[in-house]
Specification:
- By secondary structure, the protein is mainly alpha-helical.
- The protein is built from 44 helices and two strands.
- It has a two-stranded antiparallel sheet with strand order 1-2.
- Strand 1 and strand 2 form a beta hairpin.
- Helix 16 packs across helix 17, helix 29 runs antiparallel to helix 32 and helix 40 packs antiparallel against helix 41.
- It is elongated, with a radius of gyration of 64 Å.
């Protein structure tokens, strides 16, 4: 039926079939009515009415047939075609011709080309209707249906038909499709295909890479994004600005100034900026990008252009892409701001990518390059290493005028040298970026280079192994290589000026600092082998000495324990002894350090805190403005330490020998060791300071002894050590005597002379041969001796103060002597008063106690009133005795038992125990009576004598003992009381008769019991012996008769 339709109706029927997406019927209709449904008309009908949601594979064959103008034979066979695809003509069959014409006129078929279409359609010839249709159909599908994924199937069959179709698919649709649908479907770009094409080139590059490297888990896909989106996108020649293009070979590409033509490819330049920006912000993204993407020539087109033309770019454009990509790689190495071994390894891989792209020899692995330390100074010319190029380390990284980033052999060699230098520093523990080492090498600031070198060597000293000599040998080679980048190994070098990062430092300085690091890490044998035993010694002997001394003093200053067998002091000692050929024991500086170590070690024996909550450290001693004053703190914090005067004097002498008391000592700084090791005192000055320190320390000990109330020790120090003005001890180092100004000794002696004895004063252990037994008088005499010493050694202006103190001490002594003399006179008067009225008593008889009441016993034994004179004498004697006992009670309470106490105790013991002697029971009664009278008299005399030298408690005890024995005798039945006179010559004996009176004046004697006779005989014998011991004359028998004594 369709074969007989009019042309208007055929057009309307084609529109109807297109709207219904009946591709088979439309194909059949187009095959039979090609004269009416011409190519352009049919494509316009499809463009206008074919649904955009239809799959491209459903109608792409129809377009191919329309393009070729031929249809399959099956479509041309009307019979067979009608059987398979019967065309429904009902929609147009009922229309009249006029209606059909009107409807055709009302159709608004879209033109294949439009001024509003993107520039891609403008590049197609007007007669290329198929290309125009495909381009406009692609935009409509994306705009109306958003089916970007259907465009490759639509355009791929026509890639060879037109370059516009091919590069639309490759450079625009493919990157956008991968970005929105394959790589990051959850984060699509919110632009249609047409709108995307209208965006600026830089914006497009940023949109394509907006999600690249955004997450750490996507770092492995960075190369995929660059190959699959950027590389295809940049191949379109529309991205390039042909103005300013240059021709020529790669060798003709030289750095251009900033005043040349504009960038030929702004989009590509934005990609390079993205790379360098990530290098600064996240070096891992940049490292993965350069590692995974070999360069712009590495493109992933998904097999679209297999075997066909893969680029519209010419050789010049490709060369520009490669060299600028290499420049971005070099720039990225300088922009990495992380100073770590891993970051430097990534930067080295980026540098190697730039070398490979520019057809240079590949670099060895970084670890191998550091191990080889190849000479690179020859490859770095003066143009690159010029100080004016330092500005390129921070600006214009992607400018072709930047000689540091433009990929030439010189710039890559310079970057490699910097990379190895930064790696050596960072691995050793001194992190450093490539930009930092570049500034050290270009700016050539000696102070900055010195600081970085010291930082490196100190890091080695703190973190290096203690036992691996190979490590230290390798470290020394690396430090020296950093100075000149191996120029010493390249004998053919013409430039003698070093180009390394330590180029402004002398080799001697680096050797000295490395030697200090060796000694700090106790590598003494290695240091000796390099700097003392080697044939070509790196350092002169004097320089070596100074370095060793400085290191030793640094170890001393860093020590925390003053014991020289541990820690820093031990290290200091070991460092000095590590170079016996260079530093013998006789070296003056070595001797000073040894004295310093000895002095410090001596302080370890004491408790010492100079500041609250801060323990003493050795450096405090070395930098102290007045080290002798430390001894004063020792005396304050260590009780009884003043008794170790010899040790303290030896400590002071070592301080002087160590130069700590020198007036020209360096300020308190740990770094100023040179002044300490070079300052030397003359023998006279050293002896003078030693004597001054000795007198000062002695004075300190005297003051400390007085503070602790040990006057005897202070007195001994003054008498033995300050009695004469100070002078030299005529040591071998001092040819003549040295007199010093001593302002310490006389003050100490004066303070001792002013000291007053108290209850806390330490008691003397011995009195001496000529000293007074009175402690007060002895103390005053010692004070006067101290003041006498002060007068002899004190300067003239101070004598008045000493004389005043001396006068006061003499006055006190005179008063004490008078008091003692008065006491002695009173003692003698009291003793004399006991002899009263012509009767001479046995020595020691005064003060003998009586048994109660006053009685006068006559020579005949009668009891009667005694004379008043005798009674007064007895009362006077008792009063004097009591006063003497009260005065001497304090002095004698701690005295040992005297001879008199011993004798009295013996008498008491004899009274109790000798009554049992059986050998004396047969003694005659007359002899017993006579001996009993003598014993009674001597017993009273000895009792009085002993009572004068013993305490009242002992006397009362003796009295109680005697009284108790007598009481026992008087209590016996039929016994009588017996009373003997004080003189001991008259006795009344107990009689056995009854009715007799006791003591009647008749002088009759009763019979005495034998027991009493034996006891009194023994007592008389012992008392006679005691009198002989004390040198008292025995009383005459005649004088004993008729005397009477009063007992109290």
């Amino acid at each position: 039926m369709a074969l007989f339709l009019s042309p208007p109706k055929l057009v309307l029927l084609a529109v109807h079939l297109a709207v219904k997406a009946d591709i088979d019927s439309l194909t059949s209709l187009a095959a039979h009515h090609g004269s009416v449904l011409r190519k352009e008309l049919l494509l316009r009908i499809l463009l206008t009415y074919l649904p955009e949601t239809l799959r491209s594979s459903d109608y792409v064959t129809l377009i191919q047939h329309i393009e070729r103008g031929d249809f399959p034979e099956s479509q041309l066979d009307s019979t067979e075609n009608e059987q398979k695809h019967e065309i429904d003509v009902a929609p147009v069959e009922s229309l009249t011709e006029e209606e059909a014409i009107k409807k055709v006129k009302k159709l608004r078929l879209l033109p294949l080309s439009s001024p509003e279409a993107p520039s891609t359609t403008a590049e197609v010839a007007a007669d290329d209707t198929t290309s125009l249709f495909l381009l406009r159909r692609s935009y409509k599908v994306d705009e109306e249906a958003g089916l970007l994924t259907e465009l490759p199937a639509l355009l791929t069959p026509f890639l060879d038909h037109s370059p516009a179709i091919r590069w639309l698919l490759v450079s625009t649709i493919l990157p956008l499709l991968r970005r929105n649908c394959e790589y990051y479907p959850n984060e699509p770009i919110p632009y249609t295909l047409a709108a995307f094409q209208r965006l600026p080139e830089g914006t497009i590059a940023n949109l394509l890479l907006s999600q690249t490297g955004a997450r750490e888990e996507d770092y492995g896909q960075i190369g995929r994004d660059l190959k699959g989106m950027i590389a295809p996108w940049i191949l379109d020649r529309k991205r390039w600005n042909n103005r300013g293009q240059k021709s020529g070979s790669a060798e003709e590409l030289t750095p251009r100034g900033t005043d040349t033509d504009e960038d030929p490819c702004p989009g590509w330049n934005q990609v390079l900026c993205w790379l360098t920006s990530n290098a600064s912000n996240n070096w891992r993204v940049a490292a993965n990008a350069f590692d995974q993407w070999e360069g712009p020539q590495s493109v992933d087109l998904g097999g679209i252009l297999e075997g066909g033309e893969e680029s519209q770019l010419n050789d010049e454009q490709r060369r520009h892409l490669d060299w600028t990509y290499a420049q971005a790689a070099l720039a990225s190495t300088y922009l990495i701001s992380v100073a770590s071994v891993e970051a430097l390894e990534g930067a080295y891989a980026i540098l190697n990518r730039a070398v490979i792209i520019t057809n240079q020899d590949p670099l060895p692995p970084l670890q191998n390059a550091v191990g080889l330390l190849a000479p690179l100074a020859e490859q770095v010319d003066g143009i690159v290493a010029s100080p004016k190029n330092a500005t390129y380390l921070r600006n214009d990284f992607l400018e072709s005028s930047n000689v540091l980033t433009w990929p030439t052999e010189t710039s890559t060699a310079f970057c490699q040298a910097l990379m190895i230098s930064a790696f050596i520093l960072t691995r050793a523990g001194s992190p450093c970026t490539l930009r930092r080492v570049g500034e050290l090498a270009l700016l050539q600031d000696e102070r900055e280079q010195k600081a970085e070198a010291l930082k490196l060597i100190h890091a080695l000293a703190n973190q290096g192994p203690k036992t691996d000599d190979k490590f230290w040998m390798k470290a020394r080679d690396e430090i020296l290589w950093l100075r000149d980048w191996g120029a010493e190994d390249a004998w053919g070098a013409t430039d003698s000026r070093p180009k390394g990062i330590f180029s402004q430092l002398k080799k001697e300085f680096l050797e000295i600092e490395f030697l200090k690091a060796l000694l700090t890490n106790t590598r003494y044998a290695l240091a000796t082998s390099i700097y003392e035993d080697s044939v070509e010694r790196p350092l002169d002997e004097k320089v070596l000495k100074d370095a060793v001394f400085s290191t030793a003093m640094t170890a001393y200053d860093n020590a925390s324990n003053p014991n020289r067998t541990r820690g820093g002091l031990k290290k200091c000692d070991d460092i000095i002894k590590a170079f016996p050929n260079t530093i013998p024991k006789s070296d003056p500086v070595a001797q000073k350090i040894e004295a310093l170590l000895q002095a410090t070690h001596a302080l370890s024996e004491f408790r010492l805190v100079l500041k609250q909550a801060e323990p003493f450290t050795p450096v405090v001693l070395r930098v102290h403005a007045d080290p002798i004053s430390i001894i004063d703190r020792i005396l304050e914090q260590n009780p009884k330490s003043y008794t170790r005067l010899h040790d303290l004097l030896d400590l002071g002498a070592r301080m002087v020998k160590a130069g700590l008391t020198a007036t020209t000592k360096a300020p308190a700084s740990k770094q100023q060791h040179s002044s300490y090791t070079t300052a030397t005192l003359s023998p006279e000055e050293e002896e003078k300071q030693r004597l001054t320190a000795e007198r000062r320390i002695t004075a300190m000990c005297i003051d400390a002894a007085l503070t602790e109330d040990d006057f005897e020790t202070a007195y001994s120090y003054i008498l033995n050590r300050l009695s004469s003005p100070p002078s030299s001890k005529n040591r071998s180092s001092t040819p003549s005597s040295v007199v010093i100004e001593d302002d310490y000794s006389w003050k100490a002696a004066l303070q001792a002379g002013k000291y007053r004895r108290t209850s806390r004063t330490v008691r003397p252990t011995h009195l001496g041969t000529n000293a007074s037994a009175n402690p007060e008088i002895r103390h005053l005499e010692q004070r006067i001796e101290c003041l006498s010493t002060a007068l002899r050694i004190a300067p003239t202006p101070t004598l008045q103060e000493i004389l005043n103190a001396f006068r006061r001490a003499e006055e006190e002594l005179d008063s004490a002597l008078k008091a003692e003399e008065e006491a002695e006179d009173a003692w003698d008067a009291a003793g004399d008063s006991m002899h009263g009225h012509g009767g001479q008593r046995v020595p020691g008889a005064f003060g003998t106690p009586s048994f109660g009441g006053r009685h006068h016993i006559s020579a005949t034994g009668s009891i009667g009133g005694g004379s008043s004179a005798a009674a007064a004498a007895a009362r006077s004697s008792k009063s004097s005795s009591d006063s003497r006992q009260q005065l001497k009670h304090k002095q004698t309470e701690e005295a040992p038992m005297s001879l008199f106490d011993l004798s009295r105790a013996s008498v008491l013991s004899a009274q109790k125990n000798l009554s049992a002697l059986s050998s004396l029971q047969r003694v005659a009664g007359g002899l017993g009576g006579h001996l009993g009278g003598v014993a009674g008299g001597l017993s009273g005399s000895v009792g009085g004598l002993v009572g004068g030298f013993t305490s009242s408690n002992t006397t009362n005890a003796g009295r109680n003992s005697l009284g108790s024995d007598r009481d026992r005798d008087t209590m016996r039945p039929g016994s009588r009381g017996s009373t003997s006179t004080v003189g001991g010559m008259t006795n009344s004996f107990y009689s056995e008769g009854t009715g007799g009176e006791e003591g009647n004046g008749s002088g009759q004697h009763g019979r005495v019991r034998k027991r009493d006779q034996l006891r009194e005989a023994a007592m008389g014998t012992l008392v006679s012996g005691v009198g002989w011991l004390v040198g008292a004359p025995a009383p005459a028998p005649a004088q004993a008769q008729g005397q009477g004594e009063q007992w109290e």
